[in-house]
Amino acid sequence: MNPEPSRSRGRPGWGFGAKTLLATTLFGASAAAALVLVRAFGPPQPAGSAPVATKPSAVPTPSVSASASAAPAVPLDPDWTAEDDALDANLEDQRAALFRKLRKFRGLSAEQVAAMRAIVEPERWFGQGNPKPTAHPMTRAECRAIRARAVPRVLEDRVRCGARHMVPIYDSTRGETGRDAKVCIDQYEFPNIPCEYPTTWVRAQVAQQLCAVEGKRLCDAHEWEGACAGAVLPAEIEYAWGLRLGEEMEPRRIALQYDHNQRRQIRWAYGQEKDHTKCATGSRKNRGCVTPSWEECGTNTYPAGAFPDCVSPFGAYDLHGNAAEHMNLPMAEREQARYGSPLGQTEMKGSWFIFATYEAHLDDCRWRAPDWHGGRVLSPSSHMNYHLGFRCCKDLVPVLPPNADAGVPGAAASAARVDGGLRAPPPSTAPARAPAAIPVAPEPPAAIPAEPAAATSVAPELPAVGGPAAAAGPASEASIVSEVAPTE
Questions:
Q1: Are 326 and 390 in contact (CB under 8 A)?
Q2: Nearest CA-CA partner of 310 in 321, 295, 299, 324
Q3: Parallel, antiparallel, or unpaired for β 324-329 and 388-389?
Q4: Of 6, 44, 90, 324, whose CA is between 20 and 30 Å from 122?
């Protein structure tokens, strides 16, 4: 016989029903406790994941617009295929793939793509770089894997901006929110597709035309700067339009640039301290790329948005590193891009893909370059090279041009006080700026780095700050913008 299980004397046996009741009670208590912990601390994170830390900023953190918080869930993007990831062997195939992706991932219409084709077809080198010398340091698939592990800080606002991969920008220092935004900006460099390589070898005129196909335009310099720094300051404060009126364009522009740089707040899209490693700056130039040329200089960029920390408070990526960007520099109020034509002077902003090893110039958000490669935005001979691209802005409200009969619009507001040729900011209208402890390095016009005139329209890139070419005089405007193409 099997012995009966032993029991402690004086205690009744544990029947099946009692055990079931006890287990149910304990499980219920554990579940309730777990629910309390989840509500208090959030759901558990996947293994290996870590929260993205952010540094405190002197600029108020832009709030999420009401339309973004109330927007329906954004549909999932189409899957990437082997065809989408392929590197094309020639420029023609590269362009064809680019236009196909604009339809697939951005939802552009057949008519819009046809209009873009017509603009680009006459262009000799527009694309994502010469396929032969170009060596991208990261694949598109690697970029997508990085982004899948990252926590996005700001999502696109398709409802407010009316387009994919755009975010509203505004003046957060004056209490504005996304509801007050009058402008949106592309989150990524054109073609504005996450994990796609940016386009280069594009003239400012062509960039403006491509933006217009989508109902967009090139950004004004102060809009790009504000999108980077987290606050779009009023145009009448950001441009000294009343300074040195009647002078030649080149010295006047240098004076306005110097005035702005003396007063600017110094910060980067990602925070108060420069750190090139946060952005797409670790690539290299080709060994034979001494003077920019199609044959020798590869567009060795990263996929757009591959560095999740290289993002502004508004949610714009790659404002440092990857490709520098065209924009409009209005030399009078009426030349702001939101008014249409006439546009102002060409301005190039942002660093590019080699800055971790070669810092060719300053690259904080609000720094403005001198008259490098100067000329009108809509000039057929506007500058282009292997590391220069663009992104677009979009107006959200109807814009009326200023009264052209009022002399020089904005001059009275921007020339409040003039002392030795340099304007001090109007004390009654200037917005809150960064703390006084933030250093602003003086940059007198005489010490502005310049480059020798090149024999081609594709001028050499800028010398390093303080480099041997720093004392050279500026090249003539004619030699900078002449469109004698490099030998193919």
A1: yes
A2: 321
A3: parallel
A4: 324
List all residues 6 or more positions away from 280 whose beta carbon is below 8 Å from its beta carbon: 301, 302, 306, 307, 310, 318, 321, 322, 353
Give me 30's structure tokens: 């554990």
Nearest to 85 by CA among 167, 165, 216, 195: 195
Q: How far apart are CA 195 and CA 464, in angstroms?
A: 29
DSSP-assigned states of every residue in 291-333 = S--TTT----PPPTT--TTSB-TTS-B-SSBSSEEEEEE-SSG
Alpha carbon of residue 57 to chain centroid: 18
pLDDT tens, position by position, for the chain (488 residues)? 333 333 333 333 444 344 443 344 444 444 444 433 333 333 333 333 333 333 334 445 565 444 444 444 555 789 999 999 999 999 999 999 999 999 999 999 999 999 999 999 999 999 999 999 999 999 999 999 999 999 888 889 999 999 999 999 999 999 999 999 999 999 999 999 999 999 999 999 999 999 999 999 999 999 999 999 999 999 999 999 988 888 888 889 989 999 999 999 999 999 999 999 999 999 999 999 999 999 999 999 999 999 999 999 999 999 999 999 999 999 999 999 999 888 999 999 989 999 999 998 899 999 998 777 778 999 999 899 999 999 999 999 988 888 744 444 444 444 332 232 333 333 333 343 333 333 333 333 333 333 333 333 343 343 333 333 333 333 333 332 333 333 23
- Contact between 156 and 166 under an 8 Å Cβ cutoff? The reply is yes
Q: Residue 435's Cα: distance from chain center in Å? A: 25
Q: With contact defined as beta carbons under 8 Å apart, do 319 and 227 qualify? A: yes
Which two three-digit tokens encode residue 356?
A: 């971790």
Please list the residues that pair with 345 across neighbouring strands: 329, 376
CA distance 430 to 263: 11
Nearest-CA neighbor of 173 among 240, 236, 229?
229
Tell which phi-psi region holds residue 71, choosing left (phi > 0), alpha (psi between -120 and 50) or beta: beta
Q: How far is CA 419 from CA 259, 265, 408, 423, in A?
A: 11, 21, 20, 6
Half-sphere exposure of 189 (CA within 13 A, CB side): 35
458: left (phi over 0), alpha (psi -120 to 50) or beta: beta
Question: Can you give the residue ranges of every domain in the chain?
Answer: 87-399+407-428
Residue 29 makes CB contacts below 8 A (sequence gap 6+) with: none
Burial of 8 (0-12, 13-18, 19+ CB in 10 A): exposed
pTM score: 0.72
Read off the tokens for 251.
């010295």
